[in-house]
Specification:
The complex is a heterodimer.
Chain A lengths: L1 H16 L1 H11 L1 H16 L2 E2 L2 E2 H22 L5 H7 L2 H5 L5 H7 L7 H17 L6 H26 L1 H4 L8 H10 L9 H10 L7 H8 L15 H22 L6
Antiparallel strand pairs in A: 1-2
Chain B lengths: L15 H20 L2 H29 L9 H18 L6 H8 L2 H5 L5 H18 L3 H10 L10 H25 L1 H4 L3 H13 L12 H10 L7 H7 L5 H37 L1
The chains are: A mainly alpha, B mainly alpha.
Amino acid sequence: MGSYRALVAAQVRAYTSYRASFLIDASTNMLIPLVDLAAVLAVFRVTPALGGFDADEVLLMFGISCLAFALADLAVGEIEKLRSYIRVGTLDAVLVRPLSVLGQLLASGLAFRRVGRLVVATAVLVVAAVRAELRLTPARTVLLVVSPLAGAVLFSAIFIAFATVAFWWIDSGEFASGFTYGGRDFTSYPVSVYGAVFRHVFAYGLGFAFVSYYPTLALLGRADPLGLPGWVAWSSPAVAVLAAVLAALVWRFGIRQYRSTGS
Amino acid sequence: MGGAQVTIPRARSGRLRDELAFAVALVRAGFRRHITYRQATFAAAATNSVFGFLRCFVLLGAASASGQALLAGYDPEQLALYTWVSQGLIGVVAMWGWTELGDRIRSGDVVGDLLRPVHPVLTYLYADIGRAGVAGLTRFVVPMACGVAFFPMHAPRRVETYPLFVLSVALAVVVSFGARFLVNAAAYWLLDVRGVTTVWNFGSTVLGGLAFPLHFLPAWLVTTLWVGTPFPSMLQAPLDVIVERGSTTHLLAVVAGQAAWAAAMLGLCRLVQARATAKLVIQGG
């Protein structure tokens, strides 16, 4: 544990030694959730509803998705760089140290410059929750707090699982982005808006419906227009745990396949 | 460069024929360099296609929920064409991810660019045109094929739309290149350009017509963006041309506006490069 702490501390020291650079970077990073928010608001300028949900309801989904993604991106987003470590061969150096490979990569990749996004995303979620006029029972209050965390676990699992693609496909480039950033965009809107095949793959195959769509249904006390039973809406934490286990298995399998590029 | 031979003609300034030979050689070099990145190109095109589905379903969902025949002036088939062409153009116009000049400034390698017989702005521009050519054959084609296969799309009705679209995309590439050159050139003064890059990514995504069609915004804001910023000239302009938004005369005016922005950006690049060169001499001492 001490070694991981040292890796994180090294990150912090690196940031604090280029203070102006860090501050500019951190503050401009706060713009990113606002880009996504602008897109949602622009769509609702021209339509009163989307997939059977009004603007405030979709804003709540967006708020949960936005905070969940901001958390995951802060914690494990830098795993995207795995593909360049594999390509250049620097992963070898990580492998020979007597620590977990994933642990090292995550500890040395904590992106503190993205902390600002958490602030913006939390603000968006609070505004959305107020605007949606939720009737908060104790159970729903817990759900409102737990959903972004469960969503973050699921997004993290997707980040890690798709980063391992680089073990088999070295030049996979932007391939993973379609599922990580694509997942973020997918969860910003109700899953009822997507075509059947595409929805089945993203909502249920990859589990993205459980990030924001089902928690929002439970928070609003609405039945699923797609016809799944009511308890499904409360199952996000279980889905998140399952996704994390699967991602861990994929990672272990992937790292065993690793062959240095030898360059 | 994958072993490709690039013959650079001897420098004799002022000769139009030599200038042209330089340009052709550098465009070819850019093309050859990027045609070798086959797998990464395919991966990026696949990602663009995923986003094509995402955006297309959302916009079509908005169109059907709005209860009107037209969504901000677009019919559903035009929305589908808008979405898939915009995803196809991401790779061609390439607003993001170019850090070559910034990296060379940080490492000092940029000195090599100044020794070449071609102006640095043109060196990079020609290489970028070659890159855009490869993207036009790959990154543009894959999402378009996907869109055609899965969605009913607007087929342009006027013959003149096609050549005008090609011209509009070419100008969009130049405007995008100019803007990227400027963002990278900020490294002459700042060294760490990540902050500038983030602001640029923000502007080019939201204000360029990629995240949503700009016509979703209030008319006064759209006009301000067209006239006051280069962003709509990079995506919204060719997208307006291909979905035939307005008469040909109107679209000619749109393309003329792009040409003005392209000229302004290149002029600004030369100015910034001249200033930076003066500064670089001092720093390199």
